[in-house]
């Protein structure tokens, strides 16, 4: 009999209390929002759920959470320590909202999902390549036209390029000219009238005769 009593005392000693939070069920102003319960570690979490439902006449679905972690119904209460906090969370406030958010998120992802369509992508690639080739051909035509205009413009310089010191580049069709020598200006003075008369006489073959002055008479006294 003493052994049986000792065993009962050991089992009773193994029990411990936990702090239960019911704020999400009753609000912070209700005195039932916080309470202490004695739990048996040999029981499962489901046992604590049934006990809370019976004590506080809870309706609706809910789950238990400790330190932010879910307590599965089939798990043993041995995962809890004395004075641990156990929170009662209604299912409709979190799980249903999470499911709705998850379904909405999946819908949005599916709506923006890009599906692979080989034929469509190939057609799109072919069209893009065709546009690129067309642009390149137009660019080549513009280059050829510009080169032809440059050839026509600078064709007159081909004969005088060595004389004038100009070099015509075949790649860029740009004229590179050496600095030309400056011409010296010679200023011719206008001849004087006497010099002009002398030049005319010499050119006409007329000899110049020296002019003599009449003798000066000296009167004696």
CATH architectural group of the domain at 2-94:
Roll
The largest sheet is: 5 strands, mixed
Distance between the termini: 207 Å
If you compute it from the alpha carbons, what radius of gyration comes out, rounded to the nearest whole angstrom? 60 Å
In terms of DSSP E residues, the strand content is 5-15%
The helix content is 40-55%
| Uncertain stretches | 165-175
Name the CATH class of the domain at 2-94.
Alpha Beta
CATH level-four homologous superfamily name of the domain at 2-94: Phosphatidylinositol 3-kinase Catalytic Subunit, Chain A, domain 1
Number of helices: 6
Description:
- The chain has helices spanning 2-14, 23-26, 45-56, 91-111, 118-153, 193-204; strands at residues 16-21, 34-39, 62-66, 69-71, 85-90, 166-168, 175-177.
- By secondary structure, the chain is of the alpha+beta class.
- It has a domain at 2-94: Roll (Ubiquitin-like (UB roll)).
- The strands form two sheets. The protein has a five-stranded mixed β-sheet with strand order 2-1-5-3-4. It has a two-stranded antiparallel sheet with strand order 6-7.
- The protein is rod-shaped.
- It starts with a helix and ends in a 17-residue tail after the last helix.
- Mean pLDDT is 73; it is low at 165-175.
- It comes from Leptosia nina.
- This is Coilin N-terminal domain-containing protein.
- InterPro entries: Coilin_N.
- It holds the Pfam family Coilin_N.
- Residues 160-193 are annotated as: Disordered.
């Amino acid at each position: 009999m003493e052994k049986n009593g000792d065993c009962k005392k050991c089992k009773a000693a193994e029990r411990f209390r936990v702090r239960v939070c019911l704020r999400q069920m009753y609000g912070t102003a209700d005195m039932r929002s916080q309470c202490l319960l004695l739990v048996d570690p040999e029981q499962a979490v489901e046992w604590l759920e049934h006990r809370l439902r019976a004590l506080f006449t809870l309706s609706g679905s809910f789950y238990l959470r400790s330190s932010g972690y879910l307590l599965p119904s089939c798990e043993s209460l041995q995962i809890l320590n004395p004075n641990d906090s156990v929170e009662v969370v209604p299912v409709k406030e979190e799980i249903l909202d999470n499911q709705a958010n998850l379904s909405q998120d999946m819908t949005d992802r599916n709506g923006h999902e890009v599906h692979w369509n080989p034929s469509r992508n190939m057609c799109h690639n072919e069209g893009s390549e065709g546009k690129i080739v067309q642009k390149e051909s137009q660019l080549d035509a513009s280059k050829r036209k510009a080169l032809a205009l440059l050839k026509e413009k600078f064709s007159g310089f081909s004969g005088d390029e060595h004389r004038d010191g100009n070099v015509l580049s075949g790649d860029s069709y740009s004229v590179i000219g050496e600095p030309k020598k400056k011409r010296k200006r010679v200023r011719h003075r206008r001849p004087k009238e006497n010099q002009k008369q002398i030049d005319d006489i010499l050119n006409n073959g007329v000899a110049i005769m020296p002019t003599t002055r009449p003798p000066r008479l000296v009167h004696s006294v």
